[in-house]
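User: Hi! I'm working on a homework problem where we have to compare a predicted structure to a textbook description. Could you give me the structure for the chain below?
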Amino acid sequence: MFKDAQYHELIRKTVVAFGTLFNDLYVYRKNSTGKTIQKMKVPLAYGPKQKFLQRIENDTARSATDPKTTAITLPRIGFEMTTLSYDPTRKLNRIQKFRKVKGADSKSLQHTYMPVPYNVGFSLFAMAKNSEDALQIVEQILPVFQPDYTVTLNVMPSLEIVRDVPIILSDVSYEDTYDGAFTDRRVLTYTLNFTAKMYLY
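Assistant: Happy to help. Predicted structure tokens:
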């Protein structure tokens, strides 16, 4: 049954394309006259939100006997793939094929069957220690998704198949993690949930 199964890196390509959208976000710090005094690129990483919150908590608990060179920098953006689900509303005829002539002699064909539709869920979180930084990040992202943004992926180079993948923003939530003593670091977190409508071949 699986003897002809192939790996086309389609889920990996979708994850990379999603992360690349948020590569170039900046936070600007201004003085009282409105002049920009600092431009800081927001770091982007793949991983669950809990991992970064735990690291912040550990950085807060630093002591003189166990010094670290630097604490985790905020603001920061992270994302992770959360779900992978079949989408029956986009199902295509299973017996149709994509075909391409193989080689210069034009005597053989490469082919693949119609793809299977899947929705990939992503969770993106923007963490900051003050509200101004968090709002700058969120306001750079939200206008781009109305409510979707489409990226073009070269899904199967061997058959020259290029497909548009819409990435849909479904909701935004806000959390202010401020528990414990006054010396603890405050963490403002905006969580944005997305769905990428991709196909598997």
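For your comparison, note the following. The longest helix spans residues 49-60. Helices lie at 10-20, 49-60, 131-141. Good luck with the assignment!
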